Amino acid sequence: MNTPVDTRAATRPDSDAVEPPHDDDVLHPEPLGIAVWLSVAWLGLLCLGALLADVLPLADPADTRAGIPLSIPTGQNWLGTDQLGRDLLSRTIHGARVSIVVGVAAVLISAVVGGVIGLAAGYFKRRVDTVSIFGADVLMAFPTVLLAASIVAFTDSRGFTVVVLAIALIYLGPTIRIVRALTLTIANREFVLAARSLGATNARVLRREIAPNVIPTLLSMMIVAIAGAVVAEGGLAYLNLSVAPPTPTWGAMIAAGKPKLDESLYPVLVPGGALFLTVLSLTLIGDAIQKRHGRNLGAI
Fold first, then answer.
1. Is the four-CA dihedral 111, 117, 120, 121 of positive or negative sign?
2. pTM value?
3. From the CB of residue 40, how many other CB atoms can be counted at a distance below 10 Å?
C-alpha cells in the first residue's frame, strides 16, 4: 500500500534553519550611527581649523601677551590662557597640525613598507616569510612608546622627520603580520590560482589579484592606527621628545600645564580634551568601517 507523501513539507521553510546572508545586507548596509557622524564632524572641523590656522582670526600661538596668565575662558580668550599668557584656542588648533600630520604620515609609511613586506612574505613564503616574521616579532617585542622614545633620543634630534619615522616603526611589525595573514588567505582562492595557471607572473598576481583585496582591509585598519599614532606623538611630546618648541603640540601643552593644575585646569583640559575627542573619533570611525567591511567579507 502506497503512503501518500506531503510534498509541501519538502518545500516548507524550516524556522530553525540558518538563512544565508541576503544581497541587501551587502548592498545596503546598516546606516552609520550618530556617534560616527559626530566623529566625522569633529575631525572635519579640526582638519579645517588646522589647515586655515594662519588665516583665521586667532592670536599668535607664541604670543605671551594674548591675555592674563592662567585666565579662565573670556570673550578675548575663548578657551583661556596658559601659564605664560598664550591663547589656548590658538595653540590647540596649531598643535592639531603636528598631531594630525605626524599620525597620518607615520601610519602611511608603515602601511606602504609593511604592506609590501607582508605581501611578499605571504605570497613567496619560505625564507622571505621567515625573515619578515622574525623582524616583525622583534619590533613588536619592544614597548611602543619606549621604542619611539629610544629612537628619538638615540638620534639626538627632535625634528619632524625623526618623530614620524620613530612612530612609523611602531606600526611596522603589526602591519607586516596582518598583511601577511590576509595574503596567505587570498593566495589560495580560485581567482588567484586561475591567474597563475594562465601564466601570470608573480608581480602581476600580486599587483592585480592580491593587493586590491588586501588594501580595503588595510585602509580600515589604518584609521584606527592613526588614533594610536596621535597618542604616541602626544606621549613623546609629553616626554619632551617630539617636535621642538616653539611649535605647539598637544602633549607638550599638557606637560607644561601639569605643574599649574592647582591654579587652573584649562592648560591641561583643553589640549587633553582635543586629544581625547580626536582619538575617540578616529576609533569610532575605524570600528564602523571595519564592521561594515567585515560583514561584507562574510557575505562573499
1. negative
2. 0.81
3. 15
Q: At what angle do helices 144-155 and 211-238 cross, to 10 degrees?
A: 70
Residue indicated by cell numbers 564632524? 41
The ranges assigned to domains in the chain are 35-49+79-299
Query: Both ends of the chain: CA-CA distance in Å?
Result: 48
Residues in the chain: 300
Q: How far apart are CA 256 and CA 247, in angstroms?
A: 13
Q: Where are the alpha helices (DSSP H) in 187-265?
A: 190-197, 202-204, 211-238, 250-257
Give residue 21's pLDDT: 42
In terms of Cα–Cα distance, which of 184, 224, 226, 220 is closest to 295?
Answer: 220
* CA 72 to chain CA mean position, Å: 33
User: Which residue do the cell numbers 602626544 mark?
Assistant: 234
87: helix, strand or coil: strand
Q: Which segments in the chain show pLDDT lower than 50?
A: 1-26, 295-300
On whether the CB atoms of residues 295 and 29 are closer than 8 A, the answer is yes
Helix axes 160-186, 144-155, angle to 10 degrees: 140
Q: Is the dihedral of CA 63, 66, 70, 72 positive or negative?
A: negative
Q: What are the CA-CA distances from residue 183 to residues 51, 223, 230 (Å)?
A: 37, 20, 28
Name the CATH topology of 35-49+79-299: MetI-like fold (1.10.3720)
For all residues of the chain together, what is the average pLDDT? 85
Separation between Cα atoms, residue 284 and residue 295, nearest integer Å: 17
Rounded Cα distance between 136 and 117, Å, is: 10
Evaluate whether 130 touches 72 at the Cβ level (below 8 Å): no
Residues sharing a CB contact under 8 Å with residue 69, sequence separation 6 or more, in sequence order? 81, 82, 83, 84, 85
